[in-house]
Design brief:
globular, alpha/beta, 16 helices, about 15% strand, TIM Barrel, about 45% helix
Length: about 375
């Protein structure tokens, strides 16, 4: 199937499944424990109905908005994902170029496979760097300094990973980052020669921003570099650390992993300008609520003092509109654009973004809105069951 015949995220997911060896696909697609939160992230959107208004002049539709101090062509951007080179040799650079062409933010993870400097220099689109706080605080300070020097537009602190989630699919497939050939996965790798050849040509999969630090540690045994890095996340991090980081960054500062009104208020009070309402794509605490269900309570708690991002389960343009009507400023996507990358490289990411743009624009016309600013609580209601 050509990516031209991919008409929704389900199509891209199916194509990515065919393109990737089993360990890579399930690492991307899976969640924690019973994967209840993973499924509920999307299913929760079905709990809301859109209320269209008729006889509105929608001959002109404007999707433009502002987020993190930057202009955006639509209220959607690309979440930080680690190990992107595992899914396509174009890695984060292919993603960033597609995002820049679409006029939206792209993100680079601390455990990304492209260095901060290269990531920033290869695209002129708006850029966000996602940060973890390590036990080695010197490494964290170094990453922030590099972001400043590279003119990264926004800094995002992830706070929902004091320990790694229980991702049982990875236990079954023997997945590690970088990937290792095992008896259980060898057949799947052998059945995907194109992936194997492209990966070999692209060179070793390395976590570029912490590679030198990893080499100096000389300890990546066991579950691989990713497992070692997980063990280096500082479990003693508190709100004081977030406040210090916001002060040192002195720019658009986002806290990712906020799921309650109380924590959103604290995020604002320590200097965050935005929060990503996120349960890490259902990959951490299984049983956590869907991000879309927390928009209303959090917006009620913080008023207009924070930008709110729905991160998790977004698969349709109508999902974006529901989130905006509930009080969000924008949504972000992770798995959908990686499905696109795995299916077709930069062109695949571009098509995923184009599909979202088309859906949002069409659905705004059907809703009776010609600008993002017009979408409000009057356009959404709880579904009566």
């Amino acid at each position: 199937m050509s990516i031209k015949n991919c008409h929704n995220i389900r199509d891209f997911r199916a194509r990515a499944k065919r393109a990737l060896p089993s360990p890579m696909y399930h690492y991307l697609d899976g969640g924690a424990d019973d994967e209840w939160s993973l499924g509920n992230n999307t299913d929760a959107f079905n709990g809301y109905e859109l209320r269209p208004h008729a006889l509105v002049d929608v001959s002109q539709i404007d999707l433009g908005t502002r987020l993190f101090g930057q202009k955006m062509a639509m209220p959607l951007f690309l979440s930080p994902i680690g190990g992107v080179q595992m899914f396509h040799p174009g890695k984060e650079l292919a993603v960033a170029r597609a995002a820049a062409a679409a006029g939206v933010f792209t993100s680079l993870s601390t455990v990304g496979t492209t260095g901060i400097e290269e990531f920033s220099s290869q695209t002129d689109g708006p850029k966000l760097f996602q940060l973890y706080i390590f036990k080695d605080r010197g490494l964290t300070r170094e990453l922030v300094a590099r972001c400043k020097a590279a003119d990264i537009d926004a800094l995002c602190l992830t706070v929902d990973t004091p320990v790694g989630g229980n991702r049982e699919r990875d236990l079954l497939t023997g997945m590690s980052v970088p990937p290792k050939f095992t008896g259980s996965s060898l057949l799947s790798f052998a059945l995907h020669p194109r992936w194997a050849l492209n990966t070999k040509r692209a060179g070793a999969i390395r976590m570029a921003n912490v590679a030198d630090w990893l080499d100096a540690k000389e300890d990546t045994a066991g579950g691989g570099a990713a497992a070692f890095i997980d063990a280096q996340f500082d479990q003693s991090v508190t709100w004081d650390d977030a406040a210090s980081l916001a002060h040192d960054w002195n720019g658009p500062f986002i806290i990712k992993g906020i799921m309650t009104p109380e924590d959103a208020i604290r995020a604002r009070d320590v200097g965050a300008s935005a929060v990503m309402i996120s349960n890490h794509g259902g990959r951490q605490l299984d049983g956590a609520p869907a991000p879309v269900d927390m928009v209303g309570p959090i917006r009620d708690a913080v008023g207009d003092t924070l930008e709110l991002i729905v991160d998790g389960g977004v698969r349709r343009g109508t999902h974006v509109l529901k989130a905006l009507a509930l009080g969000a400023n924008a949504c972000s996507i992770g798995r959908p654009f990686i499905y696109g990358l795995a299916a077709g490289g930069q062109a695949g990411v571009a098509r995923v973004l184009s599909l979202f743009e088309q859906e949002i624009k069409r659905d705004m016309a059907l809703l009776g809105c010609n600008s993002i600013s017009q979408i409000n609580a009057g356009h959404v209601q709880r579904r009566i069951t």
